[in-house]
Design brief:
The structure is a single chain. This protein has four helices and no strands. It is mainly alpha-helical and about 120 residues long. The longest helix has about 40 residues, at about 1-40. The chain is elongated and about 40 Å long. The protein starts with a helix and ends in an 8-residue tail after the last helix.
Length: about 120
């Protein structure tokens, strides 16, 4: 009985640590991209925090939409998520920063083969 309980605890610990590692990698990936975007757009702290949240929300929405099997629904959800991201960006960025942000987002969507869903 003790061996069974210890085995279950060990399995739980390993699965929890692997889940934490995946989340940490995702967080580091977003942080890395945000650092690059901050320097490219010369953003202040407030702008950076708003866009970081918008980027995380966009990433989550796209991942959720991609899991959907219905192409029409997938396209609508991704388009809706991108538009929401662009609204957040337009509220905090200057006109020149927003133009650069559009270029960055467009390149990102094209590189990840998501741009076709936004048309």
């Amino acid at each position: 009985m003790k061996k069974l309980i210890l085995s279950l605890v060990a399995v739980f610990a390993v699965s929890a640590s692997s889940f934490a590692a995946v989340n940490n990698n995702t967080d580091n990936s977003v942080k890395s991209r945000m650092t690059k975007m901050e320097s490219a757009l010369q953003m202040d702290g407030y702008q950076s925090s708003v866009l970081e949240e918008a980027t995380i929300n966009l990433q989550e929405a796209i991942q959720e939409a991609i899991q959907n099997n219905d192409e029409t629904s997938k396209k609508q959800e991704i388009k809706k998520a991108v538009n929401k991201n662009l609204k957040s960006a337009s509220r905090v960025l200057s006109i020149n920063q927003y133009k650069k942000y559009l270029q960055i987002l467009n390149a990102t969507l094209n590189n990840n083969h998501i741009a076709d869903y936004t048309k």
